[in-house]
User: Fold this.
Amino acid sequence: MTAISPVRVEIVRNALVAAAEEMSITIWRTSRSTVVREILDFSTAVFDADGRQVAQSARIPVHLNSMSACLERLIADFIPLDRWDDGDVIVTNDPYSGGQHLPDIQTFRPVFHEGRRIAIVGTLCHHVDVGGGAPGSYYADAREIFQEGIRIPPLKLAEKGVLNQAIVDLVLANVRQPDETSGDLKAQIAALGIGARAMERIAAKYGAADLAAATSAILDGSETMMRAAIAGLPDGAADFVEWVDDDGQTEGPIRLQVRLEKQGDRIRLDFGGSSPQVQGPVNNTRAMTCSAVYYALLAALGKDIPANSGCYRPIEVVLPEGSVVDARFPAPVTGRMVVNHRIATAVFGALAQLVPDRIPAAYYAISYVYALATVEASGRRRVYFDIEVGGWGGHAGGDGASALSCGLHNNTNAPIEMVEAKYPVTFLRYGLVPDSGGPGRNRGGLGLVREFRLDAPVGSLSTNFERFKHPPYGIGGGRPGSLSRTTLTRADGSVEALRSKVSGVPVRAGDVITIETSGGGGWGDPAERPAARIAADLADGMVTPAGAALYGTELDEAAE
Assistant:
């Protein structure tokens, strides 16, 4: 290993981040589906020659914190690095081979300079459909992964620059939107080429030896900074329990228990006591759980720490095998974000016992995923797939943000004008839900309502929702945020309250679907909220008179 100056390390680090961002922009500009192009449900990253992640794009932490685990597993158990040739593209979506869930297809490509492997570049895209029992591949009735879609084991999608079209054809024959799947997969492959060329330029400019030295120093630097951040916490232990509503098939709640132990510059998180794996598709694999843990700790401690594999070194995660946080094959996992978000809020809840002024109350903590499969009068079939968000928890510095995507999934809004132009739906409402933020000295952010009418003759609805029974918790006397709900108003005026997780609910022309998401929890005693702030909330429509009364302040006093 050659010596390298800190200035050169920082220059190379920023060049690597730029390479990851170039790949991200490529996918954004060339993808076909709304879930990738509009919601931005994809990620890109750069790895060193041995597969350790050294740079990320500003995309989705739940992807990025697990891509290195996928690559490590792929190298160790399936395709050793000595079998990776220039121009190869490795693909997988198998959660039990290190992947996320079946809709998330990951691709990796090695980068060579002067005959020497210098890096690996990777992409991950959530594809709108990969088959299985429900359009959009969120099948609430799945009891094993075989019902959730096509599994792609780690294999070479391209060898020495030649695409294996037979693999592509096999995948496209098993999905409901082959045109969009094909387009998004091509975008991933194109992005790998962009990333490879960027890495070749970096190696040509600084030399392969300096690049290797820089990547090693980057990882060590992030580890050092993460250890310093952990050391800044008081030593001690804390326990916290979160409850997930259900698995969509049984009524029983799911227990997520974590014991956090902090000593010196290391931190240990033990999830013993969490529920056994469940029959419904909300289980997590180990890579997924660790990803949520890393997100929570980096969000709480690592604002200025470059995110890469070095950050994970001081963190020990202990998971009971066969539990909902470390499920055994072939447990279904497509709806894993139901549990994954709550792993993060469980870690936040434990951290709040050590540093209460640094941790906000709970946020909405679920990716509100839904898919509406439609059949138009012409017979054309479409899948409208979307992800909604809710309110953030109040915090020491102020109120929680309203209808803002949490960093764990970091999705963006799909404009309703674009959705209406592409799918047979008409939006009737899209806005904030008054009184949904938990009361507190600092109020929780508000959830949102999204209401639309089906204009096609027939369709079917699938949802992967949560927070129908267990609201986001408050901190320091703050009250919980609101519960979520979904209602289906038929064209004849009858109204049906839907469960949080459903598949294949039949809908017809004129039926209206109303989705209301949770607000965040409150922070601090509601009685300590200044009357002027309550009056401002009333004037802005954030709370109603009934909601304002929960603060224990007379309305005439608030109006003054």
The chain has a mean pLDDT of 95. DSSP finds twelve helices and 20 strands in the chain. The two ends are 69 Å apart (CA to CA). Residues 178-206 form the longest helix (29 residues).
